[in-house]
Amino acid sequence: MSTALIEARDVELAFGETPALRGASLSAGPGEVLAVMGPSGSGKSTLLHCLAGILVPDAGEVYFDGQRIDNLGEARRSALRRDRFGFVFQFGQLVPELTAEENVALPLLLNGVRRSAALAEARPWFARLGLDGLGGRRSGELSGGQAQRVALARGLVARPRVLFADEPTGALDSLTGEQVMELMVGAAREQGTTVVLVTHEPRVAAYADREAVVRDGKAKILSMGYAPGGAAERVAS
Ligand SMILES: Nc1ncnc2c1ncn2[C@@H]1O[C@H](COP(=O)(O)OP(=O)(O)O)[C@@H](O)[C@H]1O
Ligand SMILES: [Mg+2]
């Protein structure tokens, strides 16, 4: 019995001869902010991609909201990513041809929301994230911190159940990084979004309810500050 919203169980995945995950188990509860730490090359991104249905594990299982998702076909995993998950990556990955506002509206447009309605949803994020007046800019006209806040708004605008963030402050200076982190965790908590946050900065992990560490393709929960539903957490060896 588990109350996890998103969970990996004994996930294994190799890239050719390179074993990236070797029986990794990890879970996050509804509304929980989970920091995933660990050295470079330990398998953090691969684990995040497995949880998000981007990569399919060779062995093990992935569950979202009580349903197994790793065995779904690409079309259904893609729909899940579009409808239920949000993403923020290290380098914002904004679409350079679009304005900041259009970038934020993009997940809604992909979900079939009409353009005017999508832009109306996107706009309040600019004031909320300290980006007033920047909605018409393109990514080339934004600072790194501004672009990452736009990427954050894009990740949250469709009110995903889970936000996956892979080193979202990795390319920012520490002050800017902390501001982005505070905004991210604040906005996610406000709308009850679960956050799986990969980072190798301990300072960043301080914003999380719990920390896990990935080493040699295995994951381990370090702190137990938050126990969703009081359920015992799975801890991998
Ligand atoms: N697309 C890929 N092709 C081949 N090897 C990969 C690929 N992605 C990751 N790896 C390898 O898998 C291991 C884990 O990588 P990754 O999950 O990116 O680690 P982290 O995010 O912790 O730095 C590393 O040895 C890495 O070189
Ligand atoms: Mg990585």
Descriptive overview:
It is a single chain. This protein is of the alpha/beta class. The chain has a single domain, classed as P-loop containing nucleotide triphosphate hydrolases (Rossmann fold), CATH 3.40.50. It is built from eight helices and ten strands. The strands form two sheets. The protein has a six-stranded mixed β-sheet, sandwiched between helices. A four-stranded antiparallel β-sheet has the order 2-1-4-5, with helices on one face. Strand 9 and strand 10 form a beta hairpin. Helix 6 (144-156) runs parallel beside helix 7 (174-190). The chain is globular. The two termini are 20 Å apart. This is ABC transporter ATP-binding protein. Keywords: ATP-binding, Nucleotide-binding, Transport. It comes from Kitasatospora misakiensis. GO terms for molecular function: ATP binding. Residues 6-236 form the ABC transporter domain.
